UniProtKB/TrEMBL annotation:
Source organism (scientific name): Halobium salinum
Database matches in SUPFAM superfamilies: AbrB/MazE/MraZ-like, PhoU-like
Pfam families: MazE_antitoxin, PhoU
Name of this protein: PhoU domain-containing protein
Ranges for domain SpoVT-AbrB: 9-54
Amino acid sequence: MVETRKVQVTGGSTYTVSIPKDWATENGVSAGSEVEFYPEGDSLFLTPRSEDERTEGTLDISGLGGDELTRAVMTMYVSGFDIIALENSRISNDQRRTIRQATQSLVGLEVLEETRDRVVIRDLLDSSELSIHNAVTRMRLIALSMLEDAVAALADRDQDMARDVIQRDDDVDRLYMVVSRIFRSTLRTPKAAEELGLPRETCFDYHSSARQLERIADHATKIAHLTLTLEESVPDDVAEALMKLYEETRDVVDAGMDALFEEESVEATRMANDAREAVQEIDERARAIDELLRELDPTRAQMLGLIVDSVSRAADYGGNIAETALQKAAPTP
C-alpha cells in the first residue's frame, strides 16, 4: 500500500518527513535509530543502518545430496549470504565431500567450521572490492577463447585442446556466480550499488550480458564434447567455413560488448545496431555450411550440423548483448 507524507520545514532551512510507524516497527527503527539515505536519480532510498555488515543464513540439508546439495549451496551464495550454516542431525561423509566441492567451485568461499551436525561456510571477499565490470570482461575473454579453441580443436582433431575447453567452462561458471551475487546484492540494498559506483540498471545490463556469455561458453563446451566423439576428420572446406563462421561470431560478440561498455550513447547505438545486423549474415553463412554437409554421410553430417548450430547460436547471444546495449544507451524515462 502506498502511503504519502507531506514535506515540512523545520528551523527555517531543514526539510523533514515522517516515517510510517508500521515500517519502522518491522525494521527495528525507533527514536534515536540511525538511517541511511541513498539518492538515485529523482528517487531517494532510505534504509536502517546496520552495525553488522555480514549476513548469515542457515539451511537444513536433511535429505539433500549430490547436485541438489551443490545447487543449494550455490543458491545461498548467489543470494548474498556472507556466512552460510548447513545443518543436519548428522551430516554424512558424502554431504561433506559435496559441500567442499561446491565451496571450491565458488569464488571467495572457505569452510569455517565443521561439527557432527553443522558445516559453516564463510565468504572471504569484501563485496565493496568486487568489480562486476571486471568479472564480465573476464567472462568475455574466456568464453570467446573457448569458442575459438573448440573450433580449432575440431579442425585439427586436437583432443587435448578439446578437454582444455571443457575444463575452462568451470571458470566461466564461477565468474557468472560472482556477477549474479553482486547483482542480487544491488537489488537488496542501494548501499551495494553505491559501493560499486554503478547504477542498478547498469548492473542489470551487465548481469543480463553475463548470462549470454555463459551460454556461449556452454556451446563451446558442447563443441568440444562432440569433437571428442568424432571418429573421422572434418573436410577442409567445412573446417575453413566453420572457422570463418567463428570469426564473424566473435566480431558480433565483441561489437555487442564494446557497445555495452561504451559511454557515449550515439556511438553505442551505432555499434549495437551493426552487431545485430551482422547476426543475419551469420545465419546465411550457417545455412551455406549446412549445404556442404549434405555431401557427407548422415551420421557425420548430423554431428557437424550440431556444431554449426552451436556457433550460430553464439552469434545470437552476441546479438542479445547488443540488444541490451541498445537499451542501456536509450534515454532514461
